[in-house]
Design a protein that fits this description.
This protein has 455 residues and is mostly helical. The protein has 19 helices and five strands. It has one domain: SecY subunit domain (Preprotein translocase SecY subunit). Helix 9 crosses helix 18. The two termini are 33 Å apart.
């Protein structure tokens, strides 16, 4: 406890880190406040049916992503998901279209162009999703919440407000990334999920206690499983394959440099939570085409207990894990950096053979990591079938919600720890895997402390 208090004091004593934390909390508060502002033309006292229809399936997950703003008919009802969908499309285009690849390789100017095009595409995607959301609000059972006198203006005003709301959330995420703790988009999604966690616990507790017949024991078993899954996810997200690296000896004057043996950590889950977010955005598309009603063939993607949903979800997670890893992981650049710093992998020639060797190892460890991610993704449906768990609580048994929470929290803690280590403070833990930059080769530590990741 004393160590924990001292760590908090160290964090608060760093002015730059303190400002980043306070700035991030302020923007999160603004985002959460906006999720309670109801769209014009809707009576908030008549939204009971809308809330009941979003308690399970794909709409329930979407509602969890936006912190309940979807069933509240909020101005931020669509949240950040249209921007995620646009980002997926642009990243696919940079792989499939040669001209886009050239623009991406132009450096900072190329990235700015792609980001700007992503914003324009976000407006189009948001307008399309807003039209589908309006159709959902006008569907049978939900239309009672609409105010008759405002109906002539409802469509145009709702499309504009929802589009502006998504752009505003996108702007908040970019500001958190630039001036806050980083990973703004992921933090916004995580806060939306965490906002529903207390309610889910209370509902599950009430359901188990009122049933009797060992309900309390089952609840304790569920909590034990939840803790075990969280521990497993931490191991998965932080797990690394350490590749030995040697550095040639150099003598400058009377001093000797290099010659030490270090390790290059390759993460089992290098893609982090992005494959989960991408897969969820893809599976959300059928719901949009059905007008959020889940009718027809879209019904297979609105129930996470459905075997079709589990198979398609698993395939999407595995595919996006390999895709996103290929986008962010560059073995050729890593091999060049090692060669430039007189580093080499024992038994492997420098240059292209080193890049091939690192790429082969990365492919081998990515496959089991992707399979485990997919398995954890379908755990909520499995637990709901086996334990008859409440839908809201089941979403925290793995799946998108828990993966995002654990991944974003660990990444945020790593950002804070990097700030502490840069100023000669101890890390958040006296031992453990968060302090990953201490495992990097000596030639890479300087870059790692600047925020450059080699995994």
């Amino acid at each position: 406890m004393k160590k924990f208090i001292q760590t908090l004091k160290n964090i608060w004593s760093i002015e730059e880190l303190r400002k980043k934390i306070l700035f991030t909390l302020l923007l999160i508060f603004i985002y959460r406040l906006g999720s309670f502002i109801v769209l014009p033309g809707i009576d908030p006292n008549k939204l009971a049916n809308l809330e009941n229809s979003t308690k399970g399936g794909m709409l329930g997950l979407l509602d969890a992503f936006v912190g309940g703003a979807f069933h509240k008919a909020s101005i931020l009802a669509l949240g950040i998901m249209p921007y995620i969908s646009a980002s997926i499309f642009m990243q696919l285009m940079t792989i499939l279209v040669p001209q886009m690849q050239k623009i991406q390789k132009e450096g900072e100017s190329g990235r700015k162009k792609i980001n700007q095009w992503t914003r324009y595409l976000t407006v189009i995607v948001t307008a399309f999703q807003a039209a589908a959301y309006i159709g959902y609000l006008k569907s049978q059972g939900n239309a009672d919440a609409l105010i008759p006198g405002y109906l002539p203006y409802f469509v145009i005003s709702t499309v504009i407000i929802l589009t502006v709301g998504t752009l505003f959330v996108m702007w908040l995420g970019e500001k958190i990334t630039d001036k806050g703790l980083g990973n703004g988009t992921s933090i916004i999604i995580m806060m939306g999920i965490l906002a529903r966690l207390p309610e889910a616990f209370i509902q599950e507790w009430g359901a188990r206690v009122t049933k009797g017949g060992g309900g309390l024991l089952i609840f304790l078993i569920e909590i034990a499983f939840l803790i075990a899954i969280i521990m497993g996810l931490v191991m998965l997200i932080q797990g690394t394959r350490r590749v030995p690296v040697n550095y040639a000896k150099q003598i400058v004057g009377n001093r000797q440099f290099g010659g030490a043996r270090n390790f290059l950590p390759l993460k089992v889950n290098a893609a982090g939570v992005m494959p989960i977010i991408f897969a969820q955005a893809i599976l959300f598309l059928p719901t949009i085409f059905s007008g959020f009603t889940g009718g027809g063939w879209a019904k297979y993607f609105t129930d996470h207990k459905n075997i079709v949903y589990m198979i398609v979800y698993s395939v999407c997670v595995i595919a996006f894990t390999f895709l996103y890893t290929a986008l962010i992981f560059n073995p050729k650049q890593m091999a060049e950096d090692l060669k430039r710093n007189n580093g080499f992998i024992p038994g492997v020639k420098p240059g292209q053979p080193t890049a091939d060797y690192i790429g082969t190892i990365m492919d081998r460890i990515t496959l089991p990591g992707a399979i485990l991610l997919a398995f954890v993704g379908i755990l909520p449906g499995i637990f709901e079938l086996v334990f008859k768990t409440q839908q809201n609580f089941a979403t925290f048994y793995g799946g998108t919600s828990l993966l995002i929470m654990v991944g974003v929290i660990l990444d945020t803690l790593q950002q804070i720890e990097t700030q502490l280590l840069m100023r000669q403070y101890d890390g958040l833990m006296s031992s453990g895997r968060i302090q990953e930059d201490r495992q990097l080769p000596a030639a890479c530590k300087k870059e790692a402390r600047k925020g450059i990741k080699y995994y």
